[in-house]
Amino acid sequence: MQEFRLPDPGEGLTEAEIVSWRVKPGDTVHVNDVLLEVETAKSLVELPSPFEGTVEALLVEEGQTVEVGSPIIRVTSGERHAVETTVDTADTVERDEDGGAVLVGYGVRGGAETRRRKPRTVQSVPAPTGPARPASVPAASAHPVVAKPPTRKLAKDLGVDLAALAGTGLAGEVTRDDVVAAAEQVKVFRNLTAPEWSGGREERIPVKGVRKVIAQGMVDSAFTAPHVSVFTDVDATRTMEFVKRLKASSDFADVKVSPLLIMAKAILWAIRRNPQVNSTFTGDELVVHHYVNLGIAAATPRGLLVPNVKDAQEMSLLELATALQQLTATAREGRTQPADMQHGTFTITNIGVFGMDTGTPILNPGETGIIALGTIRQKPWVVDGEVRPRWVTTVGGSFDHRAIDGDVISRFVADVASILEEPALLLD
Amino acid sequence: MTHPSVTGAATATEPIRLLDAEGSLVESDANAPWHELAAQLSTDDRLAMHGEMVRTRRFDVEAGHLQRQGKLGLWVPSIGQEGGQVGAAWAAREQDTIFPSYREHLIALHRGVAMDQIIDTFRGARHGGWDPLETRGMRIYSLVIATHALHSTGYAMGIRLDGACATGDAQRDEAVMAFYGDGAASQGDASEGLVFATSYEAPIVFFVQNNKWAISVPSTRQSRSPLHERARGFGLDAAWIDGNDPLASFAVTRRMLDAARQGAPGYIEADTYRMGAHTTSDDPTRYRTRDEEESWRRRDPIARLAAHLREQGVAEAALAEQEQEAADLASDLRRRTLEAGTAASDDIFDHVYSEPHPLMTEQKRRLAEFEASFGGDA
């Protein structure tokens, strides 16, 4: 039996995320067959097998972040003659008896086989004790879970552990309602654990890479462009209805439709009416762009990135929806190219997805305006002298006051708000 | 003093190419003298060149796997660049000295460096450990970009001072070849090397593999005018070759090296492509497209020479045998790498001075003391 420990696939990296397994227990693997794909701070890489044999167990799950040196897969050695199934005709039997200790010195921490030793005088820092992950495979139970296949599928999709539920159906069957209720429960009580601080009174996180770029961009923007922020509350009920109708339409069946899409379209329309907000202030002149490269601030595993949709002003609603979907998918996969982030002219930041009402965003350097889309929720709203529950949101934005004045800013934000209030205005 | 151009090239629109991407010979009046030079290579020679390329690539792939399996600290793939390298390797003469950067695996293997010695460098077991006296003038890898442009130029100037060149005897006159890439060409050291090489008429050829990407920066951004034209501005005779064409690389390098050994330094820009990552720490999908990679895959130097060999009547079995031999070598290399021990940490002190030295002895003792402080059993 042999264990493959996570190697350092870059230079001096200490951990990697398990992105996907390409093998499963019971599979036969040969030397250099791809076992899995991992993502490090630097890149997505495939790890080839150092062993020959049968996969006994995957020791880490997809989505888990694993320290370099941790065992990730266990392979049972095949028969000795099985080695001949490699391309090799010479005698090159590999017997990695030490269990595959990583030969190189980078990054391996902890574990009995580690080749780096700490001086006796140094106290080792205890590993952080985070909450234990729920096991995906329940321990063997005397009572097998009774549930219909569609219920099992639903539970899997919703991330509900069937074995942890007390079924309310006949003979303790776990029903669809049980699963839905459990999923709702999880939503209410999600993320309530407050993990202990890890050891030491201070933690020092080096500022580098994307973080450093973000920091510099924020400083450049905040200290060169005097920001002015404005807010307006708006009844977005018609936007919500419009989104609902779009979702139901067959043309939009394959794309994600959200209020962000209507917001983007509203901004494009409002820019045409107030071109100065889509400009770059150089000090000597105001360069007004007659095109819109619409940036979307995206929280990605690499940090905040602002890729933009090039020439968004020329797109139909469907094209825009497709472009937005591609842009966010690319950002989430960590595959955003530098060119995707250059030459933006205006930015939207969707802080509503985090449940925030509004905020005072900082301009993407070189741009004159940024709009924040807040959360949209039902609130009391006065319609024709009566208080009614309506879908209400706040449109907020920051603008470079060197470039434009309050009248232009206010007209622009009011235009955006009016579209959210009545998307039909886009038909003009 | 100025030297006549041995390439006869002014501003070229196409690199010198004797073998096209399909492996067919490219005949033209301009190519005739180059074909004449390439004729020095028999079919057996060409088959041997193919074998070296196949072995190098298989070695390269295996080393990449070993890095992903935690056995190497880093790997620098040369996949895609074997064609220019094999031509240059065969063009160099026995008495020549080679200064590589770190991607010249084929040249190193050709001059007699063992695969294990290269592996040891990337395993961190040796600080670039081979003795150029035992590797037919192949110096160690230079990991600091372009520093060796100066080392190689200085070495070539030394050859001149020794009177070991410019006697008119190509079989004995020495020359130097320096290998670097389009990214290194932007370094100050690279320009300084060119200035000194021309000023002192040093017997050197700079073989620059333009593989299009300096990690993530495209060569079109760093070099607004072609690199070979830049070299001409420094007063060197310069040629632009298809870097995936082993025959063009051989012919042009042979002629330029022979001119260099008579005191006319030269510069070759080899038009090629790095098919893999810059190193195993790099992810090229972040900055270039699959289409671009695909277009270069169709210009692969190994497939090109193989097609030429088939056209010359070389049996398929001979090519297959080379593939099998390469696979076996890679497998053996894997086994030896897994068995290889860790170098003693105090080894380095023995290579600082040729004789025992009190300061080194003291440092060696201190290191032993420090290591003992960890406790023997941990």
From TrEMBL, chain A:
Coiled coil: none annotated. Its EC number is 2.3.1.-. Gene3D superfamilies: 2.40.50.100, Chloramphenicol acetyltransferase-like domain (3.30.559.10), E3-binding domain (4.10.320.10). Its cofactor is (R)-lipoate. Residues 146-183 form the Peripheral subunit-binding (PSBD) domain. It is an enzyme of class 2 (transferase). CDD domains: lipoyl_domain (cd06849). Residues 1-76 form the Lipoyl-binding domain. Pfam families: 2-oxoacid_dh, Biotin_lipoyl, E3_binding. It comes from the Bacteria. GO terms for molecular function: acetyltransferase activity; lipoic acid binding. Keywords: Acyltransferase, Lipoyl, Pyruvate, Transferase. The keyword Transferase applies. Residues 112-144 are annotated as: Disordered. Residues 132-144 have a biased composition (Low complexity). InterPro entries: 2-oxoacid_DH_actylTfrase (IPR001078), 2-oxoacid_DH_E2_comp (IPR050743), Biotin_lipoyl (IPR000089), CAT-like_dom_sf (IPR023213), E3-bd_dom_sf (IPR036625), PSBD (IPR004167), Single_hybrid_motif (IPR011053). One of its GO terms (cellular component) is cytoplasm. Belongs to the 2-oxoacid dehydrogenase family. This is Dihydrolipoamide acetyltransferase component of pyruvate dehydrogenase complex.
